[in-house]
User: Fold this.
Amino acid sequence: MSARQGYNRTSRLRRPTLLARLLVRLHFILPLLTLSRLAARVSRFRGPGGILIRAFAWLFSIDREEAASPVPQGYASLSEFFSRELKEGARIPENGEECVACPADGLLTRIGEINGTSHPQAKGAGYSIEELLGGVRCAAPYEDGHLAVIYLRPSDYHRVRMPLAGQLREVAYLPGRRLSVNPAIIDAAPAVLATNERVALHFDTGAGKFCVVMIGALNVGSISTAFDIRTDASIPPVPTRWRFHGPRGAKCERGDYLAHFNLGSTVVLVATRDLLAWLPERKPVEEVRCGQALGQRLPLEV
Assistant:
């Protein structure tokens, strides 16, 4: 079995349905950027009485009691509600500093190891970490490392938090398409995660490295980060990197706010081989919450 066909500790994928294959083809015909911009405008609409917010919360059965502000009167637009903060203590990371905390609420669609620099996706139809991160230099540390994919549904909390403490070393904006990242679409076309618009945030823990990749998608207006870096449509659609050497990189603690989507999408967590081990009870197609234990840091080799 070649590295690209590698498949380790992930559940067997369902064969893509005919509907999923048709949807993938349709994505290459529709004006997706125009649709995403239209969705962004609608999400910023400041309607009377929070009509859109009420409808959205009802349609997706969102827990209003968790929100830091009253719903809907505490939010001027659907976009503000979508990227809402939660009440203090709502997503405290589990089990001490050695716990690898889930960075987001959502559906855990993939969790496992990387064979070489290839993600263990469907046989012969996967994508490489080099493609995901935008280059050989960025991908090299993650050879034979670890990867988890979390799909954020419309009903989920859409702020992404630090899975481990670390120092920011690089932020990369990688332009691309805005195809849907619905799991049915990804089963039919896994490479979407490595070709969609995305922002990769690279961290160093001192014992290893990890990267949180924010994947853009259909109807995602933009990706906002905790750092003074623009990653929205106002910057040219070319790969752009910001590097932070020595003490210049921001030091972030486990559970700190990292970024959020302005409408939903997917988060990919990539880690170096010696940094962590996934908990054996974590399985694909499992609902997870931000702060929940995904794995455990490995002890430093002496």
